[in-house]
Fold:
Amino acid sequence: LYIETIPNFSNLKLKHLLLCSLKTRDHRPYRVIKRLRAVVTMSGSWEEFFATHLPPTDFEDNRSLLKEFCERHDRQGHRIVLVTSGGTTVPLEHNTVRFVDNFSAGKRGSASAEYFLDQGYAVIFMHRLKSLEPFTRHFNGQKLLDMLEMQDESNNTTIRVKQDSVFALAPVLSRYQAAHAAGAILHVAFTTVSEYFWLLRAACEVLAKSGPRALLYLAAAVSDFYIPKDSIPTHKMQSESGPPVIQLHLVPKMLAPLVNLWVPNAYVVSFKLETEENLLIPKSRAALEKYKHKMVIANMLQNRHQRVLVVTRDANQEILLSREELLAGADIEAGIVGVIVSHHSDHLAHSEAR
Ligand code: PAZ
Structure:
């Protein structure tokens, strides 16, 4: 009856949830109604987004990979983290020459993925194509080639790592090989904001089965704006047609269905990037209040690799690297991941006790 009285209510999953809870007499109706309200408030828009944006061409392949990866690690009782990393684009043409981009090098996500692997997590690394990736991030640009030397001896060419580079390469290579031998990391890539959302939802669908063992670490810089598919031209815009007028629309807030519907038992960490310090805490708190997830990592664009604030319902905790640590190449992500893993362990213990 409640469902029928909600205008435009079309979320079958929630309908199913409510009916199951009635059937099993596991009522907890207030929880269901709370979810229902959250979904209805923003219903339509996110569903409409998926209805009007086709999945990427490699979507089914990626979905199978995600399924296989999660099922394998689930069988072994592993914790699984979804790390999103890098910025999304918003194409201005279907045959895309130009696009609006979101700032992010992918350092946060790629470094964090390594630290999650060190902590025994299976890692889904969902990243912007060509942004930084775990392990290879240490040898960006020409660094790797600079570490090699070539020897030519009677038509026999050998390539070796220079002796003074072995100390830098060996520990990274050994962590890389261990992670890959254990099948502990899966890479999936996106470019546009709609590819990002399709992959995010597919990953959540498989992660839902891991319940509280799933951790979502949403570090990607995702566009808040997009241009609906039917408003962009097929071909490259021509300057002869005069200055283009481009109207950006608001992207629906996917954190709402994600927390309430897609992975209701997972430990969800979102990120908040600001350029004005006075907005950092209020906006992070507002997000926690609105979406009811577990944690926001707040950072300023200008010093994001030196200082972050871990914002939870009960506290703000600062993680800070000294100038010396930063110059010595320390990663703030080691500290961030340490704090999150400890909160995630509490969340698991709490869920098991219930
Ligand atoms: O990728 P990166 O290391 O250059 O930057 C990381 C970051 C600032 C994109 C990330 O920490 C973050 O805040 N992501 C969320 C961005 C947002 O509010 O949209």
Observations:
- Residues 104-108, 219, 221-222, 271-273, 299, 304 surround PAZ (CB under 6 Å).
- The two ends are 30 Å apart (CA to CA).
